[in-house]
Specification:
Helix content: 25-40%
Oligomer: single chain
Distance between the termini: 61 Å
Radius of gyration: 21 Å
CATH class of the largest domain: Alpha Beta
Largest sheet: 7 strands, parallel
CATH superfamily of the largest domain: SPOUT methyltransferase, trefoil knot domain
Low-confidence stretches: none
Length: 271
């Protein structure tokens, strides 16, 4: 009996006004979840990372020119996931990149709570306060997972983890690392309740990072690219952390600073 081609699973859609296509386009263009809470991702590797991370995919979209990629991905997709075939021009109109790979998806993201961040015996929380660049946030998520952080806490003004650029820069870490959004007041109350020390980054004052004990339950906050850490966090902080560097450089990139601090915390905790 001849084998049925895998691509026969693909449902062809040729209308820009199809509801799924419109949701995909909106999720990409507004960098926000679709109506059912799913988020848009793009690229074969990122879709594979979502599958490997155990996320539920609502729909996967393939451009007509990406049938070969479809053959590789379809065996990894359960039959509950809709698989859509789009003409190249319609696919290109729905996604965010100028040179798309021909694969995109609507994915149900990881849902996390504050309890997920404080559950470990000695939590290490990476906080972002007003960080607006999605590439920086994605890189921070990637470093946070790599260096064993409990999760990421995003305060007011921080770019949404649903932004497709965050997923791309995180290389899939956003699919696995708990990420919670709170107000500053809620975060400070939680730190008091759970006995978590608050450390904030500083460009020119504070104690050098190697002198600070990061083995204790700690939340380390990175501020916005332009303004730094908000005054409310500075006033409440138990520690101001300084990363020693050349005085000719005013400050470090937020993602670089976060990665250095996370590495030092892991070094201390595994010493």
């Amino acid at each position: 009996m001849p084998q049925v081609p895998l691509t026969d699973r693909l449902r062809p859609i040729a209308s820009r006004q199809n509801s799924l296509v419109k949701e995909l386009r909106k999720a990409f263009s507004q960098a926000a979840p679709a109506e059912d809470g799913t988020v848009a991702i793009e690229g074969a590797k990122l879709v594979e990372e979502a599958i490997r991370s155990g996320l539920r995919l609502r729909a996967v979209f393939f451009a007509e020119s990406a049938r070969e990629r479809a053959n590789r991905l379809l065996p990894q997709l359960g039959h509950a996931t809709e698989t859509i075939l789009l003409p190249d021009d319609i696919f290109h109109s729905a996604v965010a990149t100028e040179t798309p790979q021909g694969v995109a998806a609507l994915v149900h993201p990881l849902i996390s709570t504050l309890e997920d961040l404080v559950r470990p015996d000695t939590p290490l929380i990476l906080g972002c306060a007003g960080l607006q660049d999605p590439g920086n946030l994605g890189t921070i998520l990637r470093s946070a997972e790599a260096f064993g952080a409990s999760g990421l806490l995003a305060l007011e003004g921080t770019v949404s983890a649903a932004n497709p650029k965050v997923a791309r820069a995180s290389a899939g870490s956003v699919f696995r690392l708990p990420c919670v959004k709170l107000t500053t007041a809620q975060a400070l109350a939680a730190f008091d309740e759970h006995g978590i020390r608050l450390a904030v980054t500083s460009s020119h004052k504070g104690r050098p990072v190697q002198e600070i004990d990061l083995r204790l339950p700690t939340a380390i906050f990175i501020g916005s690219e332009g303004q730094g850490v908000p005054r409310a966090l500075l006033d409440a902080a138990d520690e101001a952390i300084l990363i020693p560097h050349s005085p000719r450089v005013e400050s470090l990139n937020a993602a670089i600073a976060a990665s250095i601090l996370l590495y030092e915390a892991q070094r201390q905790r595994h010493k």
